[in-house]
Specification:
The protein is an all-alpha fold and about 250 residues long. The protein has 9 helices and no strands. It has a single domain, classed as Glycerol uptake facilitator protein (Up-down Bundle).
Length: about 250
C-alpha cells in the first residue's frame, strides 16, 4: 500500500533531523572532548551511522533520502517522481534547521562556550584546511556524484537485497573521512543549511554567504550521477513484441 505523501515527508523530516543532530552533534560535543575525543574518524562514523540507522527505520516509508541532492539524483535516475521533489526538499531542510536549533540549545548550556563555526561548511578561510573555493566546489560535486552512484547501484533491483543501508552508510562515512578537512563535508544542502542559519543568527553571516556552494555543488553532482547511471548502468528492457494478429476468414 502506498504511504501518503504527508507521512513520507514526516519521515524525511525526522530522518534528516537525526542525520544533522547525530553527525553535527558528534562534531560539536565529542570530536575533541576535552583534549581527546572521537576525532575525524568518529565524526565520519557518526554521519554514516545516522544514515544506516534511519535507512532501516524509515527507508520503507519514505525511501530515506534525508538530502535534497539525493532526491534530485533519484529523480534524474528515474527512481522518484519529479512532482514530489519540492515537498521532500521542504521536509529535509526543515528537519536540518530544527536539529541545528536543538543542537544550539544544548551547546549553549555550558558556562563557557563559543559558537565558533558550529560545524558549518565553508571554503577559503572557513575551510578547515584552508582549501580554495574551486577545490571545495570540485570535492563536493565529485563526492556527491559517487554517493549517488552508490545509492543508485545499491538500490538497483539487480543488487543484493537488504544490504543497501550498509553500502550507503559506509559510503557516507568514507566521504567524511576524505572531505572533513576540505569543507567540513556537506554533500547535503539540508545538513549545511541548519548550521549556517545558527551561525548567522549568532551575528556572523559568513556561513550563509557561502551556503550557495553547498547547494550548487551537491545538486550538480547528484544530477549528473542520476543521468549517468540511468543512461549507462540501468537495465533498459526492450518494448514487448506485439505479434501481428492472425486473420481468420469464414
Amino acid at each position: 500500500m502506498q504511504v501518503s505523501l504527508y507521512k513520507r515527508c514526516l519521515a524525511e523530516f525526522f530522518g534528516t533531523f537525526w542525520l544533522v543532530f547525530g553527525g553535527c552533534g558528534a562534531a560539536l560535543f565529542a570530536a575533541a572532548f576535552p583534549s581527546t575525543g572521537i576525532g575525524f574518524l568518529g565524526v565520519a562514523f557518526a554521519f554514516g551511522l545516522t544514515v544506516l540507522t534511519m535507512a532501516y527505520a524509515v527507508g520503507h516509508i519514505s525511501g530515506c533520502h534525508l538530502n535534497p541532492a539525493v532526491t534530485l539524483g533519484l529523480v534524474a535516475g528515474k527512481r522518484f517522481p519529479a512532482k514530489e521533489i519540492v515537498p521532500y526538499w521542504i521536509a529535509q531542510v526543515l528537519g536540518g534547521i530544527a536539529a541545528a536549533g536543538v543542537l544550539y540549545v544544548i551547546f549553549s548550556g555550558r558556562d563557557t562556550w563559543s559558537l565558533n563555526g558550529f560545524a558549518a561548511n565553508g571554503y577559503g578561510t572557513h575551510s578547515p584546511g584552508g582549501y580554495s573555493l574551486l577545490a571545495c566546489l570540485l570535492a563536493e560535486a565529485l563526492l556527491t556524484f559517487f554517493f549517488l552512484i552508490v545509492i543508485l547501484g545499491a538500490t538497483d533491483e539487480r543488487a543484493a537485497k537488504g544490504l543497501a543501508p550498509l553500502a550507503i552508510g559506509f559510503c557516507l562515512t568514507l566521504i567524511h573521512l576524505i572531505s572533513i578537512p576540505i569543507t567540513n563535508t556537506s554533500v547535503n544542502p539540508a545538513r549545511s543549511t541548519g548550521p549556517a542559519i545558527v551561525v548567522a543568527a549568532g551575528g556572523d553571516p559568513w556561513a550563509l554567504a557561502q551556503l550557495w556552494l553547498f547547494w550548487v555543488a551537491p545538486l550538480a553532482g547528484a544530477l549528473l550521477a542520476g543521468l549517468f547511471y540511468n543512461s549507462v548502468f540501468a537495465e533498459h528492457l526492450p518494448p514487448p513484441v506485439v505479434e501481428k494478429p492472425v486473420a481468420f476468414s469464414a
